[in-house]
Each structure stands twice: as structure tokens, then as C-alpha cells.
Amino acid sequence: MSGMYSTKGRYALRAMADLAMHEGWVSLGDVSKRQNISRKYLEQVIALMGKAGYVKSTRGKGGGYQLAVKPEELSVGQILRAAEGSLAPVECLDCTNGEVCPIMDTCPTISMWRDLGKITSEYLNDKTLADIISAAE
Length: 137
Hints:
The radius of gyration is 17 Å and the shape is elongated. The protein starts with 6 loop residues before the first helix and ends with a helix. 22% of the residues are buried. The chain is mainly α. The chain has 6 helices and 2 strands; from the N terminus they run αααββααα. The mean pLDDT is 90. It has a two-stranded antiparallel sheet.
């Protein structure tokens, strides 16, 4: 297992932290350079953040992106869910795909996976974007 979160989720956190650390309108080109994320991929990630209402944008000279939510009011869990969708630790607990595991009622490991998902969600929901940027300073 290489990790629970894709590059989309990791890049979303990095991009949002970058926006939080810079005042005013920030160009994606600048974020791309600072975070070493391709601009094309960053555009996709930021679009997800915009769709969730976490960033706003303006065009033209001096335009760019900025947070639409205060860093202390935006949880890591919210950002990751906007980027990744479900944060279920295993596919059989991912309710977003519309399928129910056929052995869920008899699976001996399901309670462990549920507990892991609950602990992970609580942790990610308790951490804010402000916590990330304060740790980086």
C-alpha cells in the first residue's frame, strides 16, 4: 500500500496552505512554482476547491486565487473530501459508489475498518488549515 491519499488530496492541501500563507490574490503560476506542482494539474485541484467554495478567483492583471474561508475555519478533512471524495479506509466502506459489500454483515474485519475510518475522520476534522500553516512557520 503506497498511501491512503492520492496526489490530488496531497496537492490540494499544499495548494491551500500556500494560498493561506500569502495575502491577496495569488497566481496559480506562483503556487505551481513554490509547490513544484504542474500548473495543469494544479488547475484541476483548485477547480475542486472552488467548486467546494473554499477558494475564489478573479481574472485580469493582479488577479488569481485566494481563500474564501478563513484558515482556522477550514478543516483538513473538508479539503481532502473535496479533493478525494470519500476518505473511507477501504473500498467496502465507501458509500459514494452505490455498491454495498455482499459480505459486510458477516465480515470479521469490518468493525476494525469502521473504527479506523472514524479515528481518521475525527483527526482530519480536528486539524485546520491554520494548524498546517502554523506548523510550517
